[in-house]
Amino acid sequence: MAGVPDRRSARQPARVRAGTRRTYSARARRRGAGRVDGGNRQRFVAVRIILVLVLAAAGVKLVHLQAFEAAALSAQAERQRVTSIEIPAPRGSIVDRNGAKLAFSVEVRSLSVSLRSMRRTWTEYARQHPESGQDFRTRAADAAAFIAEKLPGKVTEAELLSKFHKPADFTYLVHEVEPSVAKEITERFPEIGTENRARREYPGGSLAAQVVGVANWRMEDPDPYKHNLHGLSGLEFVRDGDLSGTPGRRLADTKQGNDNVIIPGTERELQPAVPGSDLELTIDSDVQYVVQNMLSDYVRGARARGGSAVVMDARTAEVYALATDETFDPNGPLDPKKLTNEAVTNAFEPGSVNKVVTAAAALETGVATPESVLEVPDSLQVADHVVHDAWEHPTQPFTVTGIFAKSSNIGTLLLARQVGEERFAEMLKRFGLGTRTGIGLPGESPGSVPPRDQWYATTFGNLPIGQGLSMTVLQMTSMYQAIANHGLRVEPRIVRAKITPDGRRVEEPTPGTGQVVSPQTADTVRNMLRAVTQKEGGNNNGTAPAAALEGYQISGKTGTGQQVDPRTRKYSDSLYNITFAGILPADAPRFVVGIRLDAPEDTLPQGSTAAPLFHDIASYLAQRFQLPLSESPTPVVPLVLS
């Protein structure tokens, strides 16, 4: 029909258009899918590249670790599971001159426990075996009861329980356990650990304790596997390097974690310990014992604050005894106040024993002879100070021998003036005053002598009579050793030799010597001082007849030195140092004995002199060493001529 479009022709464009849209949509989908496939391929390639790079880096690292760091990493891993343990070196012994042991070590064990590991182990055991009724609490109770039973008197069950339950990861249970007992305990309770220790034994107890000293191991050491003995005082301290040896080293595997618990059976020795050397002393145990006890008894009887005594060989200056009245037992609790040896650490003003310097100087310089006579008053003006003799007397003619036998302060000062200050100062130095003797004991005091350029007008009125300077008992004895040894002063010594672990004997260095005065002067002074023990009545009495020993000639000198009152800082009228130095026998010197008493009560007969104590010591020495009797009695000489 005209004017009316054919429906098919009218719909055709729509179909065509729809088909076209479908065609375009399919193509678009195909193009989108292509883009997706391409993106996936790109991501896949990127991932593969990353994986290759990662694997390559890991391979490089692996090669580096295996080729270059393997040893270091292995060592680090070993350190993490291996503990280095010190093997204590056997400490050397200390013996006297005859081989008697004064100190030695015995092997013991310390028991310890890792509380952290023990709690963990027995808590886990209780969880896995609830029917057993066993846990940490019951295990600790069993161990405490067993250990206390095996160590009666050493530790109680209650003390052990307290240690087991304290809030800590580790604790020591008990020390110094016999090895056989420790083995029995650890076999019954494997969680209890042991450490090898050494216990120092002092068989003589307080015998020469200040000389020998004391050694112990230090619990404050942060390393629980380092427990070598160390010296705390005396020769144990000052010769620690010789005695202690060189610790060894062993390795042991430890459990993982922070317990540091050693795995049984994994210990192996890395380096053996080298034992310490023995020390052989000059001390004679018998002489030391007798002198120590005689001194203590005498100090107690004189009600003195203390005392010291030295016995020395007249020729070699070897010390046979070095005693103080108060000592300690190194096997028991320690009192720090008693560890020091006052015979070498305490310097004091000696009084008239120092007059031997004036006697030696007067004879050496030729200003006097033993028979020379001086008119001696009982007082003398020295600058603004008046010096007195110990007793009142008119001006009298004293022989030089009499001046020292009767210990006249005034006669001594008159002789010192003739000697002169310079020569007197030189003689003090020759006798070793103001310097340490070098005996090798800790804390030795050098004493004191005022420097020559600091002498005041009154200084030369004090020094010749033993005031205004100080010395130790050891220094005092050393002075008289020079007189006994023909004027040759030998540095005193107390160690004779070191015995190495292989048995080799190493003598101590030769002591220093010095000729203080000529042999003739020394022998003359020694002969003069025999008159100190003279007892002929009246003016012919010396100051120490009580020091005389029947059958032997004795030379000696008494001393009374004023102490400074700590409150007034002035010389006291009641506090004195009482001293005595003697030579036995005077005609063939074998021993020199020096004694000091600290502030004895002067109201007691023996408080005014140490001569009776010297007599007792000399009597013992003569018998102990079977000293030959003197060939002739001590000659009687005039002391005061009117």
Automatic annotation (TrEMBL):
It is found in: Membrane. Residues 87-255 form the Penicillin-binding protein dimerisation domain. The keyword Cell division applies. SUPFAM superfamilies: beta-lactamase/transpeptidase-like, Penicillin binding protein dimerisation domain. The chain crosses the membrane at residues 45-64. Gene3D superfamilies: 3.30.450.330, DD-peptidase/beta-lactamase superfamily (3.40.710.10), Penicillin-binding protein 2a (Domain 2) (3.90.1310.10). Residues 307-617 form the Penicillin-binding protein transpeptidase domain. GO terms for cellular component: plasma membrane. One of its GO terms (molecular function) is penicillin binding. Residues 1-35 are annotated as: Disordered. GO terms for biological process: cell division; cell wall organization. Keywords: Cell cycle, Cell division, Membrane, Transmembrane, Transmembrane helix. It comes from the Bacteria. Belongs to the transpeptidase family. This is Cell division protein FtsI (Penicillin-binding protein 3). It comes from Amycolatopsis arida.
